[in-house]
Structure formats: structure tokens, C-alpha cells
Specification:
Blueprint (H helix, E strand, L loop, with lengths): L5 H10 L8 H25 L7 H23 L7 H14 L4 H14 L14 E2 H6 L2 H10 L2 H14 L11 H25 L1 H27 L14 H7 L4 E2 L2 H6 L6 H6 L5 H10 L9 E2 H4 L5 E5 L4 E4 H7 L7
Parallel strand pairs: 1-4, 2-3
Antiparallel strand pairs: 4-5
Helix pairs in contact: 2-3, 3-4, 3-10, 4-9, 5-9, 8-10, 9-10
């Protein structure tokens, strides 16, 4: 990685100032066009069960898109980007946390650490994807290597791990949680239970559970995949703590995930992740505008939807070559140390 250009970083930070202002009308409209279709689709799915359960499957996939969109609103609220009012951000964010099965304060405490440590090799482990260096892997025990390979398996990470986190693990507290984080978990669980009981009163337990599990399963898989490709891609740059610079890592340590327009809409422009990491205070509906109006943010190789699947082969960070490697690449360079 070339030497950090502080003048360029200052210019970028100056450019984003005009995009940080929330627009109340846009924020309210985004809530409307997310929440109303979400509940409307729930009604359609409930009625569809009387005709055929096969009708529910495509509707559940569509509904999961609105869950992802609700999560982006939840995400913006936690950054204080969706409304000028902190109270409004917290209230709307907490409600969206119920819809997405994610405790608001707990998740955002972890997420703030992620923003402050992303791309820092010496501060991995909170709110990120577990990534070992080639040296770490070569010195790991056989048990650690097998566990790491299991974790990095796409089936485990996305098809099992994502739904497990959102539907099960988010329901519990840990000893290291703050009191506010624990209350956030409790309040979210109570909100989920209240909505569940209301729907169950009209549909029954089995109908509710099947629809809810289907919707959240697809939403969790999509959401975890989005997060994965934002920091696991061929051109990513990571740094030792002594060389780490927030602005530089934001641009070069986060991807520009160029999605088809419909996917971009459902994912709330989060594909412009390099801009989001440069300034998390920009509302999601201003990210594309910021990108289009400033050439400084366009000098990034886009990661397209189809190309993104090639990132699933990336497994280890090699500090010598300064890039993420596949298993085969690591074995060719370190045939003895990376076996098993």
C-alpha cells in the first residue's frame, strides 16, 4: 500500500459534509415504503397458506428483502444518521430491531467497535469476520485449523451461521454485556413476543413459525453475505496498528459492491460501503448521490454481484504479499505450514 495521502483524506472528509444532513421527509418515506409492504406481505402470506404453501416461499423471499431494508434503517439509526433527533433514532432503531430480531443497543455497541478497528490487523475480533493470517494459521494447532476451516466454509458461515445468530444467539445475554445491552436484549425479545402473540392469535403457532422462520432465514443469509463482501474482497487493504489510518482504511478497506438497482434498493445503498465507512453519519439515501457527485469516491474497483461469489474462495491474509489468499494460493507459497 502506498503512503497515506493526508491531503486527499482531508479533501474527502470535506466533501462528505454536505451529505450528512438527514432529510426528515426521505427518512419517513423510507420507513413507510419498508414497514407497510413488510406487514402487507405478511397478510398475503397468511392468506396464501390456505391455497398452497408453495405460494409462501417466493413471498417469503420477497419479504426478506424488506427485512434487509429495515435492517439498514436500524443500522442508520444506530449511527445517528437517520434523524437529527437522538431520541427518534433510538425509538425507530429499536422498533426496526424487533422486526429484524436484533437488539438495538447491543448490536450497535459492537458495530461501533467494528468501525473503529476495521482493517486493523492488531484489533481483529469484534464485529468482523474471523480472518487469520498465513502465519497465524501455520502456527495454529490442528484443532484450531479445523475450526477455522469450518467457520470459513460458506455453508456454515451463511446458510447456518447467519440464521443461527439472528434467530437464536441474539435472544441471549452474556456476562460481559453492559446493563444497557442486556436491557436491549430483553426489550427486543419482549417486542418480538408481543408481535408473535398478536399474529398467532389469527394464524396459529405453526403458520406463524413457518412464515417467520422462512422470512428471517433468507434475510439472515442475505444480510451476512452483504457484510462479508464489504470487507472480504480481492483489493482489500489491512494494516498493522502503527500504520492504520481511519480515512485510508475506509476507502481501501471497504468495498464498493455494485448491485443491480433492485438489489441496491433493498440493501439501502450499503454497497457504497467505502463511503459509509468514511462517514457513518451519512444517511443511506445520500450514499449514491455522494458517490455520483464526487470523482474522489469513484476511483475504486467495483465488486459486481456475480464477481462477488469469487470472494468465497478467499481464506487467509498474507502479510508478505498484502492480500487475501485462497487455500490453493497459500499452499503454493507455504506448502508445509498451511497443510491441514
Amino acid at each position: 500500500m502506498e503512503k497515506v495521502d493526508q491531503n486527499l483524506n482531508k479533501r474527502r472528509l470535506n466533501l462528505i459534509a454536505n451529505y450528512r444532513r438527514p432529510d426528515l421527509r426521505k427518512s419517513i418515506w423510507q420507513i413507510i415504503n419498508t414497514v407497510i409492504p413488510y406487514f402487507a406481505l405478511w397478510v398475503v402470506m397468511i392468506y396464501s397458506t390456505q391455497l398452497s404453501w408453495w405460494l409462501v416461499l417466493p413471498l417469503a423471499i420477497l419479504t426478506s428483502g424488506f427485512v434487509v431494508r429495515a435492517f439498514i434503517i436500524f443500522h442508520d439509526c444506530g449511527h445517528g444518521a437517520f434523524f437529527k433527533s437522538e431520541y427518534a433514532n433510538d425509538m425507530v432503531g429499536s422498533f426496526m430491531g424487533i422486526l429484524t430480531l436484533t437488539p438495538y443497543y447491543r448490536w450497535h455497541n459492537s458495530h461501533r467497535v467494528h468501525h473503529g478497528t476495521s482493517g486493523n490487523l492488531d484489533k481483529r475480533g469484534v464485529g468482523d469476520v474471523w480472518t487469520m493470517t498465513t502465519d497465524e494459521y501455520s502456527n495454529a494447532s490442528l484443532k484450531q485449523k479445523r475450526l477455522y476451516k469450518l467457520y470459513r466454509n460458506p455453508i456454515i458461515m451463511f446458510l447456518i451461521g447467519g440464521p443461527l445468530v439472528f434467530m437464536i444467539l441474539n435472544r441471549f445475554t452474556r456476562k460481559d454485556f453492559t446493563r444497557k445491552e442486556k436491557y436491549s436484549v430483553y426489550a427486543t425479545n419482549i417486542g418480538i413476543l408481543a408481535i408473535a402473540l398478536f399474529i398467532i392469535a389469527f394464524t396459529g403457532v405453526s403458520t406463524f413459525l413457518l412464515i417467520q422462520v422462512l422470512v428471517m432465514y433468507f434475510a439472515a443469509v442475505a444480510g451476512v453475505y452483504l457484510f462479508y463482501v464489504q470487507h472480504q474482497f480481492p483489493d482489500v487493504h489491512w494494516f498493522d496498528d502503527s500504520d492504520w489510518d481511519y480515512s485510508t482504511v475506509a476507502i481501501h478497506g471497504s468495498s464498493y459492491f455494485k448491485l443491480p438497482k433492485i438489489m441496491q434498493w433493498f440493501s439501502g445503498n450499503i454497497g457504497f460501503h467505502h463511503i459509509h465507512h468514511l462517514s457513518s453519519g451519512i444517511p443511506n439515501y445520500n450514499l449514491e448521490k455522494c458517490y455520483n457527485e464526487n470523482k474522489e469516491f469513484q476511483d475504486i474497483n467495483p465488486l459486481t454481484f456475480w464477481k462477488s461469489f469469487s470472494t468465497l474462495k478467499l481464506k487467509l491474509w498474507d502479510e508478505q504479499s498484502q492480500k487475501l489468499m485462497t487455500w490453493d494460493e497459500a499452499k503454493s507459497l507455504y506448502p508445509t505450514n498451511t497443510k491441514n
